Amino acid sequence: MTSRVALVTGGTGGIGTAICRRLALSGHRVATNYRNEEKARAWQAQLKAEGIDVAIAPGDVSTAEDAESMVRAVEALVGPVDILVNNAGITRDTTFHKMTSQQWNEVICTNLNSCFNVTRPVIEGMRARKWGRIIQISSINGQKGQYGQANYAAAKAGMHGFTISLAQENAKFGITVNTVSPGYIGTDMVMAVPEDVRNKIVAQIPTGRLGDPDEIAYAVSFFIPDEAGWITGANLSANGGQYMGW
Ligand code: CAA
């Protein structure tokens, strides 16, 4: 397998950590961004103790200026980005009639604008080198909607619109663009949902359990090898059977 350079945004989070780990164990050079240096350095040291190297660069992906300087720092540390996983995301859950413009904007900027902000500085290099993999980490709730998540569902559905347009524009350049839509995974983000609400959600999952972050990392890794070059514009659901729309 060819060793590539991978940038995973939000790599220090639950799903992000599993993606960084799996890509590094597959032989790729991996980097992520951070906003909190102390937390990121501790995370990096923990992976290092497992024998996994992940480069880290400062930058808030919700702003174009930060994202661009973060990408340039990553290039200086590990080389030009071949694989981009747009994974960074937050929730600000509340019913829409109570939602503030701040709760709306924070989610749209971090989850959706980040795709523009980070992909824009890497796409020209991928096109020039005639190879690339761009993977959006969306959500089951972008596919089916969710009570209390008008902001999040709008951003996550928007991510797949981004995927299918970029897929068309970049297919001739050896670049595939795909979406992975996780269901409810046992991360801090999902564990922050009130327990009674969460138990009702788990009861709707045919597998009867939350997903494991590595089950999402596996779905991401599926899109990366050269033999996945014909697969572009896809939206891969990984949700334990909770939503089977097609
Ligand atoms: N369908 C219908 N009614 C619902 C409902 C649902 N799914 N969920 C809540 N309700 C009802 C309640 O029964 C209650 O009704 P009554 O007032 O008649 O008793 C009412 O809505 C409560 O409404 P409020 O506006 O008072 O809501 P709240 O302030 O109590 O909290 C909430 C609402 C924030 C949305 C809370 O229910 C919640 O956290 N829900 C979970 C949202 C969720 O799934 N988030 C996912 C986070 S993880 C993630 O995002 C990762 C991923 O990609 C999957």
TrEMBL record:
Q: Does the keyword Oxidoreductase apply?
A: yes
Give the SUPFAM superfamilies listed for this entry: NAD(P)-binding Rossmann-fold domains
Q: What Gene3D superfamilies does the record tag this protein with?
A: NAD(P)-binding Rossmann-like Domain
Q: Where is the Ketoreductase domain?
A: 4-183
* Keywords from the named record: Oxidoreductase
- Which InterPro entries does the record cross-reference, listed alphabetically? Acetoacetyl-CoA_reductase, KR_dom, NAD(P)-bd_dom_sf, Sc_DH/Rdtase_CS, SDR, SDR_fam
According to the lineage, what is the superkingdom? Bacteria
Q: What is its EC number?
A: 1.1.1.36
An annotated Gene Ontology molecular function: acetoacetyl-CoA reductase activity
Q: What family name appears in the similarity comment? A: Belongs to the short-chain dehydrogenases/reductases (SDR) family.
Name this protein carries in UniProt: Acetoacetyl-CoA reductase
- Identify the species of origin: Noviluteimonas lactosilytica
Gene designation: phbB
